[in-house]
Amino acid sequence: LLQSLAIAKETVGEKHPSYASTLDNLANLYLETGDFAKAEPLFRKAMAINEEAVGAKHPAYARNLNNLALLYRETGDYAAARPLFLQSQAIVKQTLGERHSDYALALNNLATLDCLMKDYGEAERLSARALGIMRELLDHSAAVQSERQQEAMRMQAWQCLDAYLWLTDKSNTPAERVYHAVLSWKGEVGARQQQIQRLHHRLAESGNAEAARLEAELADASRRLATLPRQSQLSASERQAEETALADRVDQLQAALGALSADFRKQLDEQHRTPDEIRKALPADTVLIDFLGYRRYARVEKGKPINSHNRLLAFVIRPDAPIERVEFGPREPIETAIAQWRRTYGGTSAGDPGAQLRELLWEPLEKHIVGAKTVLISPNSLTAPLPWAALPGKQPGTYLIDDVAIAIVPIPRLLPELLAGDAARPAPDKKPSLLLVGDVDFGADPGGEDLARTGHIAMRGGEPFNWPALPGTRDEVAAIGASFGAEFSAGHATELTKAAATKSAVCAAAAACDYLHFSTHGFFAPPEVKSAEANPAAGAALTNPASASQNNASGLDPGLLSGLVLAGANRPYSDARDDGVLTALEVADLDLSRVRLVTLSACETGLGQSAGGEGLLGLQRAFQTAGAKTVVASLWKVSDQATQALMSRFYDNLWRKKMSKIEALREAQRWLLHEGPKQPGLLRGLEFSPRPAETPSSTAGLSPRYWAAFELSGDWR
């Protein structure tokens, strides 16, 4: 920044807005690092330059006022901060209008100040309004933005959600009201992509020319509305008039398309789910736990600033009870315990991370889930890597899997749609179909055309990979195929093995199947390959729109950071053939609306690049975006022996014993846990460990390393 400031001074001079902008950025850095003495004179100097260069009614001057007010807020001088926030808000309202992101951030900053001053009623009113503006901006922009661009914009807006969650905790706002405001934010990019994908498929199948025309016009109007804030050639009055006209046109087109298309009406309804709709969708004896992370704002005590920190909360939703809000405290101890559990698979020492996680995460929830037989967990990025079933149970020597069935629901507001379909099992008169992929020859020449040429960026260089063969998957695929054939004599099973397991073949076969089973490696980009999404802003500084454009997303699409490894993956990349990696982005583009169950029997397929409220943007979510009802995936690599035993029993439970999906998986996992020590021939060489909270009379069980990796996401029935 100092180097940039020197260049600006030399090239444009010390009275230019660009010089003022760099001063402001430098001051914000000092503010973030707590060097308030250096920050204040730079803020004031930047403000003086802009007052002379662009005037005291310009958005740049409003940003300077806002950022100086942030300094006073951080140092506890609330009396000095408030008039600056109000003046900045008035300028933004006059020049950019009340539907601009800068206006939402101005309201948000004022709300946090009011909360610090303990004016909780006004703080909540302003914060809810800021949240509503950001929600509207995201909705209007989504139709013309890629998922990567939506992620970048959502991250900018997330600070408004942070503030709302923080101040409603301090003000003890009823959980029902808070959850109503935040429900649409969890997984909103993923939900919208899933809806748009489904809508495009349905409109294409319908051949309705009028619907296609309206959709194209809606996309154009949405694009113009989304880009309007960046059209600097318009005056404030012209921009606001055009904004009103375009917003009205978008409403008209949505109404017309809704009248013409039942799928579009459903899409609109899903964007505005209420807690009551979620509550009514939940079966009896079922409880939903919706986790969210948020950042507590800095506060001042005894004249000294106290650093903000990240926290974890959950909303507990039951069909027959009021919504409860549960606070778990700072993120760091939970994050450390989860990492330790994953390193040791629970461990047996006095510092058992499993016991610590039960105390930190499960015990605060227990009183709210009494009597529940099924617990649905919607994780955030912090809790997603945690195998909940492997936490210690209520009784010594047991696990949570012994107490309750646990399933994952990535996006709670899609629950009504998820449960609106038919039963999990095909009707007797239907002929179910199964796709089995395993025993893949990663060194084969797959031939064919590379699907990545459609615009997907290949996560490959010129050098070949060295994926090791998975010989154990041969028996796994054979056993599952035999189980399917025994139960569904009229069904059809397709096996893609060896060199036949190409990306082209998998994509061609998957859409026509009810069940998909992949027994292969999972692909994950190395940590140095960055995703497009950024961390949420630490503060609420107003930045130069030229450098903070919602289209200014950097990094790769999150969907390119994970995939399934198929035939040819070990060969050097070539445009002339399949690249051997089916990325999550390519999976999401498939039409898998027929698919009832996808099983990803691969290493770490349940993980993906973290993206805040979007959870983990990995293969698991990609299959659900494509329309699959249920995904079973693993959180870490499991031995071939244990995986084969688990999968064989899971499918036997599902198809022959006609269990629900969650009970089929749960019974198979409990069988491995409890019966594993009695099966030395089947599980020779695997690790056994004492049960949690071991008592002298308890016996060793199969380590959670082998049975707890797989989790079920989506329709658990």
Account of the protein in words:
There is one protein chain. Helices cover 47% and strands 14% of the residues. Strand 6, helix 17 (400-403) and strand 7 (405-408) form a beta-alpha-beta unit. The longest helix has 25 residues, at 236-260. The radius of gyration is 27 Å and the shape is globular.
Give a brief description.
With 717 residues, the protein is α/β, with parallel strands linked by helices.
Keywords:
717 residues; alpha/beta; five-stranded mixed β-sheet; single chain; 14% strand; globular
Strand proportion: 5-15%
Give the overall pLDDT as a whole number: 82
Helix content: 40-55%
| Main β-sheet description | 6 strands, mixed
| Structural class computed from helices and strand pairing | alpha/beta
What's the end-to-end separation, in Å?
A: 56 Å
The tally of helices reads 25
Count of individual beta strands: 20
Give the overall form: globular
Oligomeric state of the chains in view = single chain
Blueprint (SSEs and pairs):
Layout: H1 2-11, H2 17-32, H3 36-53, H4 59-75, H5 78-96, H6 101-116, H7 120-142, H8 147-170, H9 175-182, H10 188-206, H11 209-227, H12 236-260, H13 262-270, H14 275-281, E1 286-296, E2 299-301, E3 304-306, E4 309-318, E5 321-330, H15 331-344, H16 353-366, E6 374-378, H17 400-403, E7 405-408, H18 415-418, E8 433-440, H19 472-487, E9 492-498, H20 503-510, E10 515-518, E11 522-524, E12 562-565, E13 581-583, H21 584-588, E14 597-600, E15 608-610, E16 616-618, H22 619-625, E17 630-634, H23 640-656, H24 661-675, E18 688-689, E19 701-702, H25 704-707, E20 710-714
Parallel strand pairs: 1-6, 6-7, 8-9, 8-10, 10-14, 14-17
Antiparallel strand pairs: 1-4, 2-3, 4-5, 11-12, 12-13, 15-16, 17-20, 18-19
Helix pairs in contact: 1-2, 2-3, 2-4, 3-4, 4-5, 5-6, 6-7, 6-8, 7-8, 7-11, 11-12, 12-13, 15-16, 19-23, 23-24
